[in-house]
Amino acid sequence: MDNLKDIKEWMRRAEGNLARAERGKIDDRFLFEDLCYDAQQATEKALKALCIARHISFPWTHSIAELLTILENKGENIPEEVREAERLTVYATDTKYPGDWEPIEEEEYLEALEHAKSVFEWVSEELKNIIK
Fold first, then answer.
1. For residues 17 and 41, is the Cβ–Cβ distance under 8 A?
2. Residue pair 7/131 in contact by the 8 Å Cβ criterion
3. Rounded to an integer, what is the distance from CA 71 to the centroid of its chain?
4. CA dihedral for 101, 104, 105, 107, sign (positive or negative)
5. What is the distance between the alpha carbons of residues 78 and 30, in angstroms, rounded to a whole number?
6. Which tens digit of pLDDT belongs to each residue from 108-119?
7. Angle at which helices 32-53 and 106-127 pack, to 10 degrees?
């Protein structure tokens, strides 16, 4: 895949995850944990798209903090509201599967969703002159 095609595909997938997260808890089959997982995935994929656009290698990681640090170390100015999305990593690791953790409540889900939207919008703005 060429660079532009890769960037578009990562952003398309990020947008898909964000759209699922935005649907909210339609009924009891939808778990806040899974919606938060989609918020985390949207964030991760958007950041990886930005890395590709900037020709920055990245590891196969779910760590939002690690991806932001890599971007920052390569000269990217990370806004504070984007940096706050670091807390989303837990949704790709600890709460992805059934386990010994407290169920996620609506307030926490809404916060995760706002973080994901913030990152997606920031990355989209950064890529606006690349993706048309």
1. yes
2. yes
3. 14
4. positive
5. 32
6. 999 999 999 999
7. 20
Fill in the amino acid letter for 22: E
Q: Which two tokens stand for residue 98?
A: 């059934």
d(CA 78, CA 92): 22
Q: State the pTM of this model.
A: 0.94
Do you know the residue count of the chain?
Answer: 132
Tens of pLDDT, residues 40-59: 999 999 999 999 999 999 99
**What percent of the residues of the chain are helix, what percent strand, and what percent coil, each to the nearest 5?**
65, 0, 35
Burial of 85 (0-12, 13-18, 19+ CB in 10 A): buried
Closest CA relative to residue 89, chosen from 39, 31, 49, 22: 39
